[in-house]
Design a protein that fits this description.
- The protein is mainly α.
- Helix content is 84%, strand content 0%.
- It contains 6 helices and no strands.
- Helix 1 packs antiparallel against helix 2 and helix 1 packs antiparallel against helix 5.
Length: 181
């Protein structure tokens, strides 16, 4: 073999191993998105459980506010369905986009319920309801932090995806841009 042949083989080997390294880096970053989503999903489940308990405790006492309770229950169901759709591929943009919309609707319905409770001091003074509201506020802070971690993981993945020369191989490997919440 001539020197040029060896150089060609070395160049091909270098490109091959670079391609493997780029693939492994993107897979690693995509796995970080999955790990961050697991934490976020746990907080979404906790929020759903506490909201269900709060609705069960408050709804029978304020029958005139059934529209508020129905809105929260509907938003809760939609949020749970969107989270379920996102669990298998939290880096896929469509299910995560649906989850973002469902989370915004849930937050609006939850804000409406909490505002209603703030105007009902006799209910808010009850230990059970006050405890559920406090627990819900804690879960919301934890969920916001978990969402921030998820969004940071998505941002790192997307940055790596758009860097040259990885960008060249991303389509070949089937990687696409992830969506943040």
């Amino acid at each position: 073999m001539t020197a040029w042949s060896w150089a060609g083989v070395a160049g091909a080997a270098l490109l091959f191993f670079w391609g493997i390294g780029a693939y492994n880096r993107l897979m690693s970053l995509r796995n970080v998105i999955g790990e961050a989503f697991v934490q976020l999903d746990a907080h979404l489940k906790d929020r759903g459980e506490v909201c269900d308990k709060l609705l069960a405790a408050v709804a029978p006492r304020l029958s005139s506010e059934q529209a508020t309770f129905d809105a929260l229950a509907s938003a809760q169901a939609e949020s749970q369905a969107a989270a379920l759709a996102s669990r298998s591929k939290p880096w896929a943009p469509d299910p995560v986009g649906s989850l973002a919309v469902a989370s915004a609707l849930h937050a609006a319905a939850l804000t409406r319920l909490l505002s209603l409770l703030d105007h009902q001091p006799e209910l808010r003074s009850e230990t059970e309801i006050d405890g559920l509201v406090s627990e819900l506020k804690l879960i919301e802070r934890q969920r916001a932090f978990a969402r921030q971690v998820f969004n940071q993981a998505v941002s790192q993945y997307n940055e790596a995806l758009h860097q040259f020369p990885t960008r060249v191989l991303a389509n070949l490997y089937g990687f696409s841009e992830a969506r943040s919440l």
